[in-house]
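lol ok so funny story. i was supposed to be doing the assay writeup but got distracted and ended up predicting the structure for this chain instead. priorities right. anyway since i did it might as well share w the group, maybe its usefull for someone
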Amino acid sequence: MHEISLCESVVQLIEEQARSQGFRKVRLVRLEIGRLAGVEIEAMRFGFDAVAKGSIVDGAGLDIVEVPGTAWCPRCQRRVGVQLRFEACPDCGHLPLELTAGDEMRILELEVE
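and the output, tada:
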């Protein structure tokens, strides 16, 4: 389950920021995760709680904002919604599409003290 290593990376990034910015405790972590990022959201929630124990984020809430997949179709000249990374345009069937959103994972916001 790669979500555990993703959670470890998130906690490590937050601890680095705590050292450089001087906060002592994190109350809330808000993540943005694209539906095409290959991340299982429930596994991420479980992994976060397990990895957070004893760290600066221990006890912090986790809010995950899911980003839908979108892509640019060069034939239609417009943005379309996609459910899979290598999906054809739902309107004209063109391949390949240029993925524009849905594969990202980033820390959006921290509530700290």
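The domain at 3-112 is CATH 3.30.2320.80 (hypothetical protein PF0899 fold). Strands lie at 26-34, 61-67, 69-73, 78-82, 98-101, 105-112.
back to the writeup now i swear
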